[in-house]
Amino acid sequence: MATHHPHPEDHLTSSVILQDIVIGLSDGLTVPFALAAGLSGAVESSALVITAGLAEVVAGSIAMGLGGYLAGQTEVEHYASERAREFREVREVPDRERAEVDELLAEIGLSPETRAAAVRELTANPEQWVHFMMKYELGLEEPDPKQAPKSAATISLAYAVGGLIPLSAYFVTDSPTQGLTWSAVITLVCLLLFGYFKSHLTGQPPVLGALKMAGIGALAAGAAFFVARQIS
Amino acid sequence: MATHHPHPEDHLTSSVILQDIVIGLSDGLTVPFALAAGLSGAVESSALVITAGLAEVVAGSIAMGLGGYLAGQTEVEHYASERAREFREVREVPDRERAEVDELLAEIGLSPETRAAAVRELTANPEQWVHFMMKYELGLEEPDPKQAPKSAATISLAYAVGGLIPLSAYFVTDSPTQGLTWSAVITLVCLLLFGYFKSHLTGQPPVLGALKMAGIGALAAGAAFFVARQIS
What we know:
Chain A is mostly helical and 232 residues long. The first copy, chain A, has one domain (16-231). Chain A has helices at 8-40, 46-92, 94-107, 112-122, 126-137, 147-171, 176-201, 206-231. The interface between A and B is large, with 70 and 70 residues. Chains A, B: It is found in: Endomembrane system.
């Protein structure tokens, strides 16, 4: 790592995008792969596997993208409403809010004298006081309102890209069984690479991360295959 | 609300479980519903829609549950490694870490004199110092290691329950078209109720939340139906 403590906002932005790609790609690689694998054990036609797979990719991509968008929007609204409440409390019950500041400062280990000075200085400006309460009492950072649509688009696209990889095998093979073989090879390789890369980024052991990711995919596909074969 | 500021840990625990149920249920109601709707426009047999739907529910439930479990595990490991790093830094480069504390205290509006006393008191104890850095520099709360398996089970189960609701309609009807009609009615009612309840819990406008949730489901199902019909 070049810089030891990256600027918090830079750090946040890059990790939010990567996090969104990771969310979309890991589900996109896994669920359509497993669904297609499941159907391969139950139907005779590759076209049917492709139809179901694409329907799943479209449905999942929309559900995840819109879900991400609305979750981001809710976070922005939640921050704004909590902030408005803190401003109201600072104005209406300043003594109780001052006692809360004092309590938080005691928790981080300040002496009564230092706390008295700190509470006086910190509560001199309502803007600063509310900022302190938001961050130190509620643990909330101000969300970026432009983040929600960006996240939605990233998750949605990553899911679709991830989902087309396992389905691609069924386009170029003659039977669902052949399709499944190639789909499993391609997808497990992608899950291994993706798990390796993701763990590397987050500072986890990369080989273990690769195996975990591929393991989820294999387990989901195996279970779907078993269930579909049982009922068909 | 009975208590104004609930104990932070109580608040956290209950909201984590509810959050997990919401995650599982909202995806479970939406994606299998949309997949089944998509296939209903492309195939003649309800059995096929059920096979694909159940394969999807199994795959999604495993992928989401295991995904949630591993994400929780990673969070625990990440916290432990960041904490070890802060302890190392406090020991090896105490002056730089003291300057970082001073910077955080300047940001909340304390004067140079108060900061000098506060930095001295706060850094007297390494345990307390590291706790401050973890929480206020890095914004990390200590995750509960028992949370990961609990979250996995909750998300997985909620997804499966959610997914069986739209599929149930195809069990009791004669054709995919009839199944789709009843599935859409049942699922949209559930999405409306679920969106209302969820928004109510998080303090958002409940009617709007109900409409958003049902809107995502309808859009995903409509798109899946359109795509499946085009290619079949």
